[in-house]
Each structure stands twice: as C-alpha cells, then as structure tokens.
Records
---
Amino acid sequence: MRHGTPNFNGGRRHLLTVVGVCLAAAVLSQPLTAHADGGTAGFTIRIIEGSKGAAPKVDAKVADLKRELETLHQEFNSFSLVASHPLRLGVGQRQAVKLPDGADLAVQLLELVAGPPPRVRHQLELPKSRTVRSVAPGGRTLDVRPWGDKLIIICTAVDK
Amino acid sequence: MSDSVESLAIDDSDLELVLLYVDGELGGDADRRQVAEQLIAANAAARAIADDMRATKVAVRELIVGEAAAARVTADLSMVRGRVMTKIPPAARPAPAPEKSAGFDPIGWLRALGFGKVSVAFGAAMVAAAWIAVALRPPSVDPRTANAAAVAEDAVIGDQPVIIEEMEVDGESITVKPGVEPDRPTVIWHFADAKPGEG
C-alpha cells in the first residue's frame, strides 16, 4: 500500500495547515487587551451632598475635591460626605449603591485594558443615563446631579 | 512673573485669590482685587481657571433653576415626551409655535426640529465620539493653560486619566468637563432636559 502513503501525508499536511491557520486566526483575533478572567479592579465611590449653607463648609473627607467643589461656590457652599463605598469587582460584575434621592447607581466592570497606561473600562448607570468610561488607575470622575435645591455629587475613583 | 512670557502655572494661594475674585468676595479689598485682576491678566492658567469658573457658574445657575422648576411641574415629563416622540414621525410633527420660545433654549430648539429621545442619545454619542477624536490629537500647548474645552482638544489619550467612550441618555443632557490638570477629576453634569412650559 505504498501508494497510500503520499495521500496520508497530503491529508496530514492539509490538516496541519488548517490547524495552523485556525491557531493563527485565534491568536490574531485576540484583542490587544487583557481580559484577565478573574481580574478585579477596585473602586471607591463617594456620595457627596451639596447644599446652600449659611457659611461655606467642605467636609474634610472630600478636601481633595475642594477645587472642583469651589467652582460651585455661591450656588452651593456646603459639601458633606454622605457615604463611601469601596467596591472590588470582577470583570462582568455589577454592583449597585443607593443615592440619597432613593435612586440607584450601578457600576459594572467591563474590562481591564493593558496599558500603557492600563485602564479600567467600566459602565456607570444612573436613572436616566449610562456611560462607559475608560479610566486609568487613580483617575476620578464626578457625576453631578441636581436634586431639588441640592446637588448629589458622585465621585467614582479607580483604585491605583 | 515675567511681563513678556505668560506663566503657565498657578500656586494654591494665587488659585484661592482667583476663586475669591470670581466669587466677588474681594469687594471690600481693593488691593487684593487689583492683585487678582493683574494675575488673571498676566497668567494664562489663572485666566483659564477664572473663565472656566465663570462659565460653570452661569451654566449651573441657568440649568439648576430650570431643573428645580421642572421638578415642580412634573417629575418625569421628559421621559414621557421621549417615548412619545419616538412614535411620531418627524414629518407629522407640527411646526413650533414661535411665541413659546422665550430666549434661546438649545434643547427645546432641537426638539422643535424633531429631535427626540433617540436623537438626543445619538447626539450625545456623537459628542462623545468627537471628544474622543479630539482627545486623540497630539498636544500643541500645555493643557493647564487652556480652558476646559481646549484641554479636551489638546490632551493626548495617554495623558487623559478619564475617557468617556459611550453615552446613552434618556431625558437628560450630559455635559463633560475634563479635569483642568491630569490629577483632577473629570466632571460630568447630568441635567434633566425638561423645562417648565414645554410640551
């Protein structure tokens, strides 16, 4: 059966070619990001209430945001930390926290993106909006929502 | 500080002086007021912060008054209108009544042109896309010297600690104000679209 050998070799070559192409396609189709199954990211969510007080007052716990809060001076001059929520989420995990007005704020970790700089892609859901953010470790966002004659300020910080 | 070359940085005491000046809290202190005015005139960073603060204060004043008043009229008017408008073909919508437009209201104006919930979301997405696009441009000046909008234009993506990739809004407007310095937070304002007297 010598004449069968070349066919077997040809078949094996084809098989190896197909396997190689599949492997190459699989490698090339990987996004340039680290999905890191099981990877986690830490967030610190601070809920701040802004109001109009008799005298300006900025809670010492939000002193790092004083410069941003001061731009609201005259309209709102009193800022106090209502709650602080440290969260650690895995990729795909979602967690909700309650806002002072009764609404829910939800954070979902979408992806850990390899750098440089590394970024934490996450989705932040508020009652009327959904935003996807890509934030470097240490980066912060302030979501400001009017609440009657007050403000609700949500500081979402991605842990370093 | 040199007279010929504008300073690109501002220290904390100067910053406080600028903030107090813009807040109008130096009314009784002519000397400090004069120092603040000179600082704003000579220092681009001080000027950018003062301009930014003035713009924010105006926006906050106008939009929060509208928000508070709208909340008294109806709690969720914009959501209802958003759903309704998606069901009405733009061609069938009546022409806007000119007497209703007291002052320029960009959201009301867009709605009068047939933009509704979907369009507002699309517009927000376009704004976000445009912002990301300009953020990808290489920097031409120190971001600290520019106002908030220019900071977005002049930042590189690698230096931006925060990138807003997508937005989906329903019945509210979102205004993104990138941090004036790399370590400052990006501020995202959420304003309800509904204004008293609309609809």
Note: Confidence is low (pLDDT under 50) at residues 1-5, 64-158, 195-199 of chain B.
---
Amino acid sequence: MELAASATTFAKTRTAPSPRPRQGKRTLPMVVKLAYRNLFHDRLSFFVTVVGIMFSVVLVAVQSGIYLGSANKIAAIIDAAPADLWVVPLGTKSYDDPSFLSGRERYMALSAPGVANSEDMLVSFARWRKPAGGETTVLLIGTAGDSPKALPLNITDGSRAALEAPNTVAIDRSYFNDLGVSRLNDVAELNGTTVKLVAITKRVRSFTTLPFVFVSLEESRRLAGANQDQASYQRVTLLPGADIETVRKEIERRLPDTEVLTQEQFRTRSQDYWLKQTGAGAALDAGKLLGLIVGIVIVAQTLYSSTKDHINEFATLRALGAGAGYIVKVILIQAVLSGLIGYVLGMSLALIAIQAAQDTKLTIIMTTPLAVQLFAITIGMCIFAATSAIIKVVRIDPAVVFSR
Amino acid sequence: MTEPSNSKVIVEAEGIVKVLGSAPNEIKVLKGIDLQLQTGELTLMMGPSGSGKTTLLSILGCILSPTEGKLTIAGMKTQNMSKEQLANLRRKHVGFVFQSYNLVPTLSAVENVMLALDLRDINGAGAYDQAAEALEAVGLGHRISAMPSKMSGGEKQRVSIARALAGSPSVILADEPTAALDAKNGMAVMELLAQVAQDTRRAVLAVTHDHRTLQYADRIITIDDGRIAGSERPKISGNAVAVAAH
C-alpha cells in the first residue's frame, strides 16, 4: 500500500533527517506570498482595483499638478524678478492687482540703512488692438533694461535690448492667436500707440486670461500714463549682512502708505489671492478629494470582497494559531501592493498627460516631492481603505472551520 | 490493552460544559466531559450527529471556550486566557486536520505547509526544507509544487496532515479526516495518523463516523448527548495494525 509505505517513512523522518540532501530555497516571506497570491488570484477583481487606483492617482496627480502649476504661474513674474524686499501699495492683493506708488518710494528705500539697490517695476492693465481688428485687455509689465533682473526671461526670438527702443513690445508665442500677431516686427496698437513686436518668449504665460505684454520701464510709464518716477513696485536688494527684518521694518516706517514684503510673502500673498480667495484652488482641491474618494471606495470595496472570498482561509489561519496581527498584515500587504501597482501605472499615465500638456495653455507640474507625497497619499489611501476588510478578518470566528 | 509505558497526559479536560445560545433558547451541548489524551496514542471519538463531538474537538483545540470546566494542554491551564493567548497556545501545541482539508487554494502543497511553519516563526530556506521533508514523509515528495486544485482528495488530506505536523505540535486534532475520501484513501489517511501517533511526544484525537477506521485506534471514546458514553481500548493497538499493514 503506497500510503502505508509513506506513513512509515514519515515515522522515520521524524527521528532521522531526510536521506536526500535538499538545497535550501530562498523564498519570499509567506505572509507576502499569501497576500499577493490572494490579490492575483481573482484577476478581474485585481484589474478593477488597479484601474480604480490608477484613475484615482491620475486624477489627484493632474489636479495637484495643475494646482502646483497654477501656484508657480502666479508667482512666475515675482520669481523671475527676485528681490529681497518688495515695496507694494498698501492693500495689494497680488502682483497683478496693479496700482501706483506715489513716486518717492525708490529714494526713501535707497536711503534706508542696509539697502543696496531699489528698482522700479510697473504693472498695469492696457488695451491691445489686434492688427486685424478687435480689442483685448493685457497686463503690461515694465522693467528697467539696465537691470540684471530685467524682464522678460526665456526670449527665443529677438532680444531684450530691442525693447529699449520706443514703441516695442515682447509677448509669448502662446499668445499669438489671442493678440493677432504671428512673427517678429508684426505691429498692433497698445493703448492707442502703435507698437512693434521685437521679442518673443516661450512658456511665459499668466495665470489669468490676460496676456503679458513686456515693455521697457519708460514705455510702460508712458503707456500707463504714470509719472516719470512712478512705479507699481520697488524691488529692494539688501547689502550683504543686512538683517532683512530690520530693513523691512525701517522701510515700512519710512513709507507708511506701503507694505514691505519679503519675496516669499509676496509670492504667498499672490498665490493665496488667486488660489484661495477666488475659489480657483478650491475647485482643484475638490478634484483631488474626489480622486481620493474614488480611490478609497474602489480599494475598500475590492479588498472587502477579496477578504470575504478568502474568509475561510483566514478562519483556517486563525484556527492554526495565527494572531490577528498576522492576518491584518496579509490584508495590509494586499492594500500596499495594490497601491504600489496602481501608483506606478497611474503616475506613468499622469506623466504622459503632463508631457502632452506642456505646450498648451494648461500648466501641469510634477516634481519629485509632489510625486513622493502622492505615493504616500496613495499608500495611505489604500491602507485606510483596508479598514473594513481588517475589521472583517479580526472578527472571524475560527470555529467556522469545523462547520464546513 | 494497556497504556504505553512512556506516555503522558498531554490534554486534560475536567467537567467541560458548553452552552450555546442564550436563555430561553440555550442548548447545553456538552454536559460535563472528563477526558484525558495521552501521548503515543490515537484516540477515536465516535457518536451520533449532534452528540457534541465537534464542539468538544473545538474546545480541546482552544477554538471554543467551555462555559464551565477546566482544560489543560501541555501543562498550561486555558482558563482566563485571552483570544490571542489561546491562538498562541494553538500555534505552539495543536495541529488540526480538517474534513474539507482547508488548504489555501492559492498556495502550493509545500507553501501550505510553510505557511503553518511561518505561523510558528519557522521561515526562510529552512522552512522550505522542513516543509518538503514533511510532504515527502506523507508520500507527497513528488507533488510539493502541486496546487490544491490539481490534487486528489487523498493528496490534499495528506498535505493537511503534513501541515498539522509542521512545527511538531504535541496534539493533533482531526475532524472527520476520512469523511471526504474514498475507502482506500480513507484507510491510508488513518494509517498515516496512526503512524503519527507512534511518536510518544504526541497525542492524536480523531472524530469519525467511519467504523472501518476503528482498527487503527488505541482508544475509542463514544460520546452521546453531550456526555462520554464509553471509553475502551481495543485488544490490538492502532500502532500495531499500522505496522502490520505496512
């Protein structure tokens, strides 16, 4: 009898080692193996989970990328023209909420201890008349050409120096359609003055629908009807070793009708205005939240149903003496594996979408810290989604193994 | 037939009462069971359906707690133990063989045994070797990578026995181990359990309805209406039968 023979063999092997030498085989920890086998066992269900997580990751990544892109776009002009301190008219909400300083601020700032330089920057709305007819509002930005911080940056055609000639402008290539021009030397009307396009930039777009039009400082004053010493902002550079807070307070004391902000404060104020006060950010946040909810619901539903499908195996494990922690670990590994695979696929898809949106009006940015954050959120979301499954397995009565 | 000279009591149940449900619909399933299981013995527990066999098996395996009475396993009193402490006791001292095998369908034969070893903190390459040896010992050395879905009932039950023995627990509890098997495989499994019981460090208790399995028993307990109705030791021990069959 074959089995009888093996039974005797068994009795022998309990006391003596197997005569056949056996090579140790490196294997995955059983708890991991059990988790991924359970996960991949029902492929359709696994596919649905991964698609759900992927969709969730894409949604959250794109919404976050748009949020980050918007935040960067809002601060782009401030970042492109950095200063230690910004002197702005009292009550300024954002850099593109223009009004004029009185005109004495530059000299008052220059006279403050610790100040090395102070530069004018003018921002104003203006009317752009297209060559073929039709008008649109633009945001006029004027900076001094002799400054190393002169705008615009990213000039691909023409030069910044050409802007010093009267009646010249620079615009971004992406605004050609909006502004009715298409090449260097095209002409249009700006606040009733004929201007010539002498420089073209790439990817210098505003957060709002108003196109940027860059001009020299003098040109901007003339077009905006400002006095010769007026500007919207003073960009203050400090002497080496000067204490920024001391200088800030001193300038603020000397110029009571202004606010003196650090670079970061002005960035944050501008971003907060557009993203928080206008509700634009809330819409993006809602999109992110929706993505998370979709992800959580799909993962929770799939993990719960997978746990139900494998409930007898979990009960058997419990009967064999597995602690609740062991079984919880299986569920958590399933959740993390789902999250990991969903994240990789979702992020790949999001990166493709971000790449595709590069030269469109939509700015989507993905950074390493954001990708890491999204990874943590995805894994956290999957672990949170595992809660219902965990409650289910922790409550298993191992006695059910005898009733089947 | 007398008890083996070097055997010792590994499971001791005293005055076990189990009440299921709550008043007024409560049912007294066990009505005061006194039982001792000794190492080196295969004990068969028989009785009609509803007599309380499986409930008693669950209590002896620390899966259910008795309403009244005392249970000691491997010298440890189970009263007042928490669920996790009972799980720990099961893990260390009790191996189960189920009627429906209860193998994890997504794991191969060797992995099913390794899973039981993993619960006992035996893992890595050593666990693989130990699991493969256990399967070889139950005659499945050639089927270690087979998935449960590709195995016959007899093979699955042998994997289940190998799994129960993983980590060398001192008590093996088998619930109708031959019920789902044909006669030939059923007898082979019983013979295997009788061999397992030859180890004087281990006691084996099997619940069965199958009278053909009685020949392998060192001791037969009959249970009826929640009480032990009889306990006898056949003249020829199960071990002797197993050896003779071989």
Note: Chain A is about 50% helix and 15% strand.
---
Amino acid sequence: MSASGITVAAPGVTPRASAPALWLGGLLAGGIWLGAAAFTAWLPDEIEVGRTQELALLAAVLGGLAVLAALTSGLFGEAGLKLRKAGPWLSVLGLALIGWEWLTAKSGTLPLPFFASPQGLLEVYLEDWPRLGESVLRSLWLLLTGYAIGAFAGFVAGVALGWSKAIGYWVHPVLRLIGPLPATAWLPIAFFVFPTSGSASTFLVALAAWFPVTVLTWSGVVGVNRNYYDIARTLGASQTFLVLKVAIPAALPQVFVGLFMGLGASFSVLVVAEMLGVKAGLGWYLQWAQGWAAYGNMYAALVVMALMCSGLTTLLFKSRDRLLAWQKGTVRW
Amino acid sequence: MVSANLQTAGSAAGMAVGIHGVSHSFQLEDRPLPVLDDVSIDVQPGEFVALLGPSGCGKSTLLRLLAGLDQPSEGRVVGDGADITAPDPSRVLVFQDPTLYPWRTVQANVALGLEARGLLKTQGHRVGDAIRLVGLAGFEAAYPHQLSGGMAQRVALARALVNDPRLLLLDEPLGKLDSLTRLSMQGELVSLWQRSGLTALLVTHDVEEALILAQRVIVFSPRPARIAAELVVDRPYPRHRDDPHLVELRRQALAVLGLDS
C-alpha cells in the first residue's frame, strides 16, 4: 500500500508510522455492506418474507459504521489496529450476506421451508426473542451448574488419585469402568432415578465433565517433577503445602486441558438431554422448532447455541491465560 | 551487611557433618543395586568439601541422605551430633537443574521456604536480601522461562540461602552452565561461602572445579561409591587454574580416577 508514504498529519494528530490515517480495507468492507443493503432493499423478493427493510437497514448501519471506522480508526490506537485485522473478514461476510440473500429471498434457488433467508432469521430474533432468550438462560443454568459440579468433583478426584495410593486403589477401577462410558448412555436411567428431569440432566452434564477433568488432573499431578517436591521438603514444606502450592499449580496446565475437554462433552450431553427429557433450553427449542417445521427458528437457535458454546470456551481460555500467564507458547483461542 | 542478614543471631554459621559407615542401595525390581559402600567422612563446621567421582557413582545419593530426603540402608548421617532423619531448612540442596517453579516469579520462588514455614510475614525482607546477594536485583518479577541458565541457577541459590542454612548441599550446581558463566559462578560461590561461613558440600565430576572451590576433595570410585582418596587443597583463595600445586593435585586426582594416560 502506498499510503505508508503519506506522512502529512492532520493538525493536532500525532502521525503514526504503523497506522496510516485512512483504512482502505475498512472502506471496502463498508462499501460491500452498503451494497448489500441496497441489494436487499431494492431488488424485489422472489419469496414472500417480512423484515426485508429491517435487514437492509441493519446492513446499511453496519456499512456506515465500517466507513466511519475506516476514516477514524487511526485515532483509536491499539483498538483501531485490532479492528483493521478484521477488515478482510468484514468484507467476506458482507459478500456472503449478498450471496445468501440472492440464493434465498431474491431468487428462491434454496426453497422454503428448509432454508431460511437472512430476513427470516432476523424475523425470528425480533419476534421470538422472549422464548429464545429464556431457552438460552435455561441452557446456561443447566450447563453451568452441571459443569461446575462435575469439574469440581473431577478436580478433587484427580488430585486425590494422583496424591493418595489408598484413594487411588478405590477410585481408579471405578474411573476405568465408568469414565469411558458416554454420559448419554445413562440418560434413560437418570430420567427415572432422579426426581426431576432437570436434576437428571444436571447429573449427566456433571458426569460428562467429570471424567476428562479427573483423568487429566490425575495425570497432571502424577507428572509433576519429583524434584519440585524434594526442594519444597528440604525447605520445610508440610504435606498440605506440597499439595496446594506444588502439586496443584504444577498440574494446572493439564487441568485446563481436562476442563476444555469436559466443556465440550457437557455441551453435547446438554443438547441431548434437552432434546429428550427437559422441557426447556436450546436443545428443546431446536426440537420444538423442527416439530413445527419452523426451520428459520432452528437456524436462529443454532446460531445462538454456537455463540453460547464459543463464548463459554473463550471464557475458559481467557481464564487459563490469566492463571497460566507464566506459560510460553500456548494455543491462542 | 547482606551476609549478616542471612544469619540468625546466636547460631554458629556452619554445621558439623558426620557420615559414619554409610552404605546404601536402591531396590530395583528383584535385586538391590548398591550405590554407596561403607563411606565415612567428617566435615568441620564451615568447611568446603568436594565429592569427586565419575557420573552416576552415588555421590548425589549421599547428598540426599544428608538432606534427609532418604535414609541410609546402613550407617548413620549426623548433623551437629544429631541423626538426620528428615529434611530441615538448615540443610538445603541445590540441584544441577535449577528446578525453579515455572509458575512463580523470581521473588515468589525465593520466598518459597519462608512461605512454607509461615515466616513470610515477619521475615519477608530476607527475600530481597537474598536476591541482591546473588546479584539479581531488578529481576524480582521475572518468570523462570525469561531467565538464562546462569540466572536461574542464581535464583536457586538465593532460594536456598534465604532460609539461613548452615549446610549447603550442592549437587553439580554448575554442571549445565556454559563454560564462561561457570567460571564466574565458581568465583561467586567461593566468595559467598567465605562471607557466610556455612559448611558446603559440593558434588562434581569436574576435577578442576573441585580443586578451585574446595578445601578438601574426596575422590570416589565408580559405583558402588567408596572413598578412593582424599586430597587436601591447602591453597589460599582466589585460586588460579595454572597454580603448579593445583596442577599436581589434578594429576593425582585423575590418577586415582584411572584417567592419567
């Protein structure tokens, strides 16, 4: 880009070598989104769907924001630079919207009811948000309580297995027999053993998270460099200190691998449990939408579910990065 | 003085160490593997003794016994007249690997011993003293992966010294350093030992290092280790590698080790 050669600064603005005042990628993305807005608004719909004008408005607002960012991102320093990296993605997403809009609403190549148009999705969010929102909250509650219980139990079991031979003697065979069994296999039993389908699902989600967290915590504790213990012992450390201040911090990177795997396992159990037994949550919403052949609602719920799972995983990685800042070369999520 | 801060008032600086007829063996799958064979050594308080021998001969095991991490199969190890049966902060061990805790900063690594004994609140100032003593002031907030090998080993030394030890057990502490760092740290070890007055036992397989640092060099045979010779290095510090007396002692030590071709 030849923009780097231009060093004439606006009055009052410090010139930045790394951040030229104008962001061309942002202008391009803005143009594409504005184009998508025009395409949506002015081309007649082949298939009768509502909310076309709202979709055009949304695309126009996004395009406007991208143009605004393109003109001003130099003023925002770090945040502006971060935004610039997203430029190609913003452009491609705009193009994807145009393509999607063309294939569904404008040409009807992908027919209703199996395929939803962008405005169809927008309509679901605008009209069915109370039910969708409640489903999200129900799912989150079930997932987080189950996961918290399972992760905590797994962590404690893993440390105990790694630390105590006596506990290992009793827990290890149980772990080997029950752990590899998919938690969903317990579903039929859980639903009649537990008083409510909610508590049964919490148990299943907890069980799904428990196994990987236990195994990886255990292997983390067992794999701790023996010299770490010798050093602490010569310096006067008690058994409690060895567990809490040596074994657990040393095992933490492994624990997080277990937490990550456990989270994935709990997602899948959550959805299955909600589809088969619980009368709430995103899994139930998916099932319900399919029952009414409301495919737009299904896609909408899938998007929300993807955002929820990705968001929770991001949260887990962020907390790991914070706790394990001392580690080098970990995966950037 | 920094060195004065590292000693509690009233306690004699160096520990007298006695190793009386110690034999030790490890239990392998079916048969015992003898590593020490009837070893007896007396170390005066404040003395610097090097244990020299081929790799894997059992010298390190002797240090573990003195640290109280293991018990001898036969014989007694004694510190200031009392049997050594458990680890104690008065006897500290520095390994060949710094074995710093990677999740702790330099400051927190050095504070380990005080923290483990619940002394951090009252004696926390000693952490800074120890870090200054090894010349790492300004690196308190660094993590181990940010340090060079020599710096990491200095932190390990500070972590040991902060506990006000009376016996310093050095298990090839300079073994993994590059040769230049190694030379400068040999000098630092000597001046540290001279200022603090504590008893030092150094395990090494480097003849020259033993002769530069120690007042007495005990030469071990290959496994199971037994004492093959004892060399008194009666030369003032700082010593020079080309001192004819040291060159002669070096020749003798190598002869005992069977390397005088």
Note: The two ends of chain B are 48 Å apart (CA to CA).
